[in-house]
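Hi all, a correction to my earlier message: I attached the wrong file for Beta-1,4-N-acetylgalactosaminyltransferase. Here's the right sequence:
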Amino acid sequence: MPIITQLRLKILLTLAIAFILLQYTYVNFNEQNWFNSSIVTTVKKCHPSTNPVPLIHLNVSGIEAMIYNKRQTTQTNEKQFITLCPETPTDLNGTMRILVPAQETLEEVAQQLSWLKLLEGGHHEPLDCQARYKIAIIVPYRDRLSNLCTFLLNMHPFLTKQQLDYSIFIVEQFGDGLFNRAMLMNVGFNEALKLRDFDCFFFHDVDLIPENDRNIYSCPDQPRHMSVAIDKFNYSLPFVDLFGGVIGMSRNHFELVNGFSNNYWGWGAEDDDMACRVRAHGLNITRYTPDVARYRMLSHVNQESNPSRFEILRSSRERFNTDGLNSLEYRVKSLLQLPLFTYILTELSGGCN
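and the right structure:
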């Protein structure tokens, strides 16, 4: 073969190999970019609200000033207790009258509850015995001042009468993106433990008020569904697997199931997901009898439903170990220990702000 032909063949072969390598590199680069962009889109996906009414965050400046004055004058004395508080206090009467605030303002509620001498952060503990547990009440919140005022006016006397050592946490979602109730409860759990070593947690909708003081918020041995009989549902349980509204769990059990899922933006199915987590970890949902576990639901505007909630729920078992407390991302914008509650304003990862 002539030398010129061999040289030409080598050049053509080299060019062909170079072209193949270049094409492979280009395709691989684009596939990698597509994969990376898909990950970023998934993590940073925004969940905008379609509500045309702008949201107003909770204004706590009035009661914040009240607690400032109280700090200057209040002195605490060390207490020594001889006996534990009874598991069932003796002066419980059963049916309760639901109280309504004279004005739907936090300042008015604080004045009406001044006789309780609440401590900072919506904290109270019995004076004449040692409470058996340290309890955190976690309330996810958005734009329901009327409900919140009624809730606080009723819950503080209810809980103090049960001789509980408790604190109430109001966890508000920053911005106007779709509401993520479950994620807010995870945030409340995390932030509460930074302030105190709580034994158990009650995750509580702000529109549900207990009607019987024998519905005791004590630490449950197994996860407890509290709001069994709600007036809206004719005081009957809508379905046997219901685990929403108000639930109580020990710290150990909540950590065992990895908390709530963070994937439910908009109303619905996060409670069903939690029920699946509870059962999957060998735990049982317990309840008081319907004559005791009675609640009134306060009127409110319904949240936007999550159209994908059932699709997300179908894959819940696949996400128990990766979606929850260990994947929670948020930023606390404000944390204030006020006379009526500890206020947490939080920006959630994945929300539109």
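Sorry for the mix-up. Residues 24-44, 68-77 have pLDDT under 50 and may be disordered.
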